[in-house]
Design goal:
Blueprint lengths: L3 H6 L12 E2 L5 E5 L2 E7 L3 E9 L13 E11 L12 E11 L2 E11 L4 E2 L12 E8 L5 E8 L8 E7 L13 E7 L17 E11 L6 E7 L12 E8 L2 E6 L1
Parallel strand pairs: 2-14
Antiparallel strand pairs: 1-2, 3-12, 3-14, 4-9, 4-13, 5-6, 5-12, 6-7, 7-8, 9-10, 10-11, 13-16, 15-16
Length: 258
């Protein structure tokens, strides 16, 4: 099928606006975004973040010929704008794409050092299927570069079918924006490249992130944000996009779609 759907959809997954910052009963804060759902840890600096998930099957039966839909699951460092911060534009992320090109499902590894363009794994060297378990990690190296790594294990298998790793530095990384002032575990509705318009999220039902861990690189106190996907225009959670994450434990949560 090629990567035509990804070239349309994979846009850097950075924060657009913070609409709400309300304290929750568990001392976490809630923020809303038009395209992210999950968790962000912010206010300090971080040297690593990792998580695992099972690649969800997408339902492409309602996608018309010539149309496409997509969702991305990823972990990352940087890119989150705390209300008291100046703009953060650097983001290092790695995860999976779940997409439809017409009625055909498509699954792929992707990695990105934003604002550079994303890299998408080819199906020969990095085949990915619904039901595979992936573990993704972003780590900051001592020289300020970042290592993005991911493994995929087929359902029922004991050994990974592939391991991917790449190292680099996001363009624009600087003292003011070092690229590691937040850690993210996110399900995203990507946007069209070069446009603020967001296409429909691929229908996946739900996804569970587990084995979540992050490592702080400073002694500053940090804060966990629950990120809810809310339509900016109507203020509602859109149908066919990400909804409220449900916390299972400190190391796992579910993102539901409805």
């Amino acid at each position: 099928m090629g990567n035509s759907v990804l070239s349309r959809y994979l846009k850097p997954a950075m924060l657009l606006w913070l609409l709400v910052d309300a304290a929750a009963s568990n001392a976490q804060s809630i923020t809303t975004m038009p395209n992210w759902a999950g968790y962000v840890i912010s206010d300090a600096t971080y040297s690593a973040v990792s998580a695992s998930w099972v690649v969800p099957a997408v339902d492409c039966s309602m996608i018309a010929a010539g149309k496409s839909s997509a969702s991305t699951a990823w972990v990352g460092l940087g890119g989150f704008n705390h209300p008291t911060d100046s703009a953060r534009n650097v983001l290092e992320q790695i995860g999976t794409v779940q997409a439809c090109q017409g009625s055909t499902p498509f699954y792929a590894l992707f990695a990105e050092l934003f604002p550079a363009s994303p890299w998408v794994g080819d199906s020969t060297n990095y085949p990915l299927s619904a039901g595979d378990t992936v573990t993704a990690k972003v780590a900051r190296n001592l020289d300020g570069s970042f290592t993005l790594s991911e493994t995929a294990t087929a359902k029922g298998a004991s050994l990974p079918k592939w391991t991917f790793s790449t190292m680099g530095t996001a363009p624009g990384t600087s003292i003011s924006d070092p690229g590691n002032t937040s850690a993210e575990i996110i399900m995203e509705q990507p946007g069209f490249v070069g446009s603020a318009t967001r296409g429909p999220a691929a229908s996946y039902g739900s996804i569970t992130f587990f084995n979540i861990s992050y490592t702080k690189a400073s002694t500053l106190p940090d804060e966990a944000f629950t990120v809810l996907s809310i339509d900016q225009t109507s203020g509602n959670t859109p149908s066919t996009t990400m909804a409220v994450p449900s916390v299972l434990s400190p190391t796992s949560f579910i993102v539901y779609q409805f």
